[in-house]
Task: inverse folding
């Protein structure tokens, strides 16, 4: 009975003609699929596989490409100080830039949900992504310019500095040799001859352009001809220069201008006993002085050079400055991706936490961040892959003298191969090293994507 039921339930045998037809259909489907994929595979092989294999092979030959050297290029690579500096800078980029970008993106994505014009704010932050790295490099090269007249950052730094600390009005002023003033090691000027109460001292300076004089400056001649009382030491600080020529050096002529707002000190036995500031005509006076000899001194602060800002593109700050430009470009990218993950969070968990009495900081730290863990990881790893290949910003922003201080593996590979080194063997070895460093991050990212799909 059981055998009869099994025979009745078994499927009917497939005819050989039907089997052949299905097999031909499967073959035709595979052929059509291969025909559609073949152009992509051909392009992938020409643009990715072949260059990788060629670079690996080229790294085993010398600069000329004719002599096989084996692993000598790889050995030389880690003996070269410039390459070691490039590896160090690349490590700084990998640690700092993705961490800051992920943190900034997370904070902005959370905050942007609480503002009214969220879409406009996202648009403004994402807009730098539309700017090419070349254009962004030129923009920040100008922004970081050391001249405050050109660099906006140094212009802001100078403005803030001058708001809290007065700048010198006479940075280029100096005294003529043999005219009664000597320059000290600290940059100050003092009278050669001693002065006493009842004297009138003339302190002539040069090096100040007439057009740079303060608008309040007045002729110094009336002040120079005044008489001092017995307990008073008077004097005048003036521009010892007459327009059109003429005049006498070391004496105040009628057309010579006083130098206002100049700090003056009376010094006795190495101690400052009186101080003051010159008037519009350059005059000053020290009253109620004890009898004796004094030195009249012009402090070095009168001649201090103006504050020119920060050397953003100097050896010490060039890498952080370029990372700052990179943050400007990629912050919107991180914010948008994290914001998409934030929008997909289960709102019931957040509302339950608020009902249980959790504040916003506790919700952010204990619920939002853990739930966004997979998204944050993908963003971080994607940025790690991207910063390992950074080239445009470093090459454009860093000036020639500090190019070596800012170099990373990508720029070092180009400089060694085409930027004057002309050693494609060593450059190919650097390319292989960069590939080996990027592969683990790429594999990790692919696995994360596959895991999220499952």
Result:
């Amino acid at each position: 009975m059981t055998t009869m039921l099994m025979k009745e339930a078994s499927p009917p045998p497939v005819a050989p003609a039907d089997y052949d037809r299905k097999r031909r259909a499967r073959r035709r489907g595979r052929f059509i699929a291969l025909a559609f994929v073949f152009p992509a595979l051909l392009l992938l092989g020409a643009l990715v596989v072949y260059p990788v294999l060629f670079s690996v092979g080229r790294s085993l030959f010398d600069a000329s490409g004719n002599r096989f050297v084996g692993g000598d290029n790889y050995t030389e690579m880690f003996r070269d100080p410039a390459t070691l500096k490039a590896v160090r800078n690349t490590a700084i980029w990998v640690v700092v830039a993705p961490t800051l970008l992920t943190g900034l993106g997370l904070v902005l994505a959370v905050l942007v949900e609480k503002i009214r014009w969220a879409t406009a704010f996202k648009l403004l932050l994402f807009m730098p992504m539309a700017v090419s790295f070349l254009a962004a490099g030129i923009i920040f090269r100008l922004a970081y310019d050391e001249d405050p007249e050109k660099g906006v950052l140094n212009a802001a730094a100078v403005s803030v500095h001058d708001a809290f600390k007065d700048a010198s009005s006479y940075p280029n002023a100096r005294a003529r040799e043999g005219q009664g003033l000597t320059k000290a090691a600290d940059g100050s000027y003092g009278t050669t001859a001693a002065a006493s109460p009842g004297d009138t001292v003339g302190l002539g300076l040069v090096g100040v352009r007439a057009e740079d004089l303060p608008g309040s400056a007045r002729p110094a001649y009336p002040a120079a001809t005044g008489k001092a009382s017995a307990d008073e030491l008077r004097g005048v600080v003036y521009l010892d220069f007459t327009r059109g020529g003429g005049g006498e050096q070391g004496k105040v002529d009628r057309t010579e201008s006083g130098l206002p707002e100049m700090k003056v000190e009376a010094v006795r036995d190495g101690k400052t006993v009186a101080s003051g500031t010159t008037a519009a005509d350059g005059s000053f006076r020290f009253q109620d002085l004890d009898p004796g000899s004094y030195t009249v001194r012009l402090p070095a602060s009168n001649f201090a050079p103006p504050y020119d800002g920060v050397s953003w593109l100097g050896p010490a700050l060039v890498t952080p400055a370029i990372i700052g430009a990179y943050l400007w470009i990629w912050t919107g990218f991180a914010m948008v991706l994290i914001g998409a993950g934030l929008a997909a969070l289960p709102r019931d968990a957040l509302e339950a936490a608020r009902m249980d009495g959790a504040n916003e900081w506790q919700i952010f730290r204990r619920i939002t961040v853990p739930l966004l863990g997979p998204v944050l990881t993908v963003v971080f790893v994607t940025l790690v892959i991207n910063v390992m290949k950074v080239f445009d910003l470093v090459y454009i922003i860093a000036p020639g003298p500090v190019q070596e201080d800012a170099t990373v593996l990508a720029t070092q590979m180009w400089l060694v191969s085409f930027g004057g080194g002309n050693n494609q063997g060593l450059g190919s070895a650097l390319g292989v090293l960069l590939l080996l460093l990027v592969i683990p991050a790429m594999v990790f990212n692919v696995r994360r994507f596959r895991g999220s799909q499952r």
